[in-house]
Structure prediction request, 300 residues.
Amino acid sequence: MSGKNHTTWAHHLPANFQSNHDYAKIFQILRILRFNNRETCSSRKQNDKFAAIHDLWTFGAFVIVDQQLVAFRGNCPFRQYCGLKFCILCDNETSYVWNIQPYTGKQPNQPSEENRGLRVVLELSYGLKGHNITFDNAFKSYELGQMLLKITVTMIGTVRKNKPSIPTELLNTKNKEVFSSTFAFTNNTMLVSYVPVVVQSTFHFNKNFPNSVSKKPQAILDYNQTKGAVDTYDKMVSCYTSKRKTKRWPVVVFSNFVDISAVNGYILFTKVNPNWKQNSLAKRRLFLENLGISLVQIHI
Prediction:
């Protein structure tokens, strides 16, 4: 949990926990924490930027693919702006993390990858069947929609306007009223230009306007309702996290891995026990306290 909760957390520890001595042990463990074999590290780094933690890393009807940026300012060969980027597949209803991939950019001694977004979505969604995936224009393409249909997975997503698959009639919005809609169809795909965005869907097949006031097509409403799971997960992690200030990026990745496991554990536990702490406003904090004590109790 975050540093401000150390005092509360310590009050729940067993009486034989010697705080100063045992905290020193914890900091010593954090200082020497490593996830890599030094003997083979140099050779594996030549072809894999993620080699320092790669060995450890391998691991609803509506889901979402989106990007997560984990804050980090140290030296890392694939740092993006002020952090490490991950692509996440989440359940829309609960924000349960189904799958995750790090973004490492161009690998050493390898050519630049084309259609990276297509590969990432297909790998993240491996094993899904009968689901719908929502994502933004960083991943969306007509080819991806067709490949997902082959594994009985539909999609909804915004499309960049420079895509050649978009008819010019949908791109010409100069004289169109704001929030007006123009549609285009193939036998299995629908495009709607809802000024000022373009959305592609293999989940919708008609011009449905359930809300006569906003005049939003059903595809736009469904996209808005199913795009926020990763943002919700980010908010959950920002409240209680195992991350500590460090200049070693594998430790940041490991902390993110712990945070994901804790969030997933909380989601599963509350689904199985819906009446647990039902009236409490601090359910997740209490769950994390109990989880931490359960994990360390047998080692004390």
User: Anything to note?
Assistant: The radius of gyration is 23 Å.
